[in-house]
Amino acid sequence: MACAPGRGMPMTGGEFHDLVRSSRTFRRFDEGSRVTREQLLGLVDTARFAPTGNNTQLLRFHVVDDPATVEHCAASHGWAALFRDWDGPKPGERPTGYIAVCGPTGAGGSAIRNLDAGIAAQTIMLAARSEGLGGCIIKSFKPSLADDLGISQQGYEILVLLAIGVPAERVVLEEVDSGHGTHYWRDDQGTHHVPKLPLDDLLI
C-alpha cells in the first residue's frame, strides 16, 4: 500500500484517489511563494524509485530554481494549446521552479524512454501535490533549451519539462457534458474546467 505523506501510515485507496483528482495541470502560480531547491530535489528523489523499462534507469534530472534561469525556461515553452489567445501566466503568476526530465541524446525517438519519462513526470506531479505544490507537464519547449541549460553538452536531451510552483488558480473536474467536449476551458471567473469521461465510457 502507498504511504500517506509524512505519516508513515498506509494511504487508503480513497486517499490516493483524492490525490490523483487534485493533481491537475496548473498554469498559474503564486510567484511570491517560491519553491526551494530542497523541495525540487525531494521530488526527484521520489521519482528515482519509479519503474523504468528493464530497470535501465537511464533518466537524468536537471533542477532549476534560480530566478533568472526559471524566467528563461518560462520563456522557452508553450503553455496551453487550446488557449490560442493566451500567452501564458503574467508576472506574479509564473512557476518558481522547473525539473527537466532527460534521457541520453536520441532517447526522444524511443517509445520506452518516453514512457519512462512519463512515469517519472506523473510521479513528480503526485509528489508535488502531496506537498501542496502543483505543476504542468510540458512537451512543447524550444529544442535550444537543452543547450541553454547545459544538458546537451553532457550527452542528454530533454524528454519532458515540468513547471513547478504553488498553484494560484482553481481547477475543477466535470463530466463531459458541458458542451465543450473533452476540451479544457476557463469561465468568466478564471476557473479552469477539465472535462473527464465517465468510467463506463472507458471500458471496452
From TrEMBL:
Belongs to the nitroreductase family. Pfam families: Nitroreductase. GO terms for molecular function: oxidoreductase activity. InterPro entries: Nitroreductase (IPR029479), Nitroreductase-like (IPR000415), Put_nitroreductase_C_bac (IPR023312). It comes from the Bacteria. Keywords: Oxidoreductase. The keyword Oxidoreductase applies. PANTHER family: NAD(P)H NITROREDUCTASE YDGI-RELATED (PTHR43673), NADH DEHYDROGENASE_NAD(P)H NITROREDUCTASE XCC3605-RELATED (PTHR43673:SF10). Signal peptide: none annotated. Residues 21-165 form the Nitroreductase domain. The keyword Oxidoreductase applies. This is Nitroreductase.
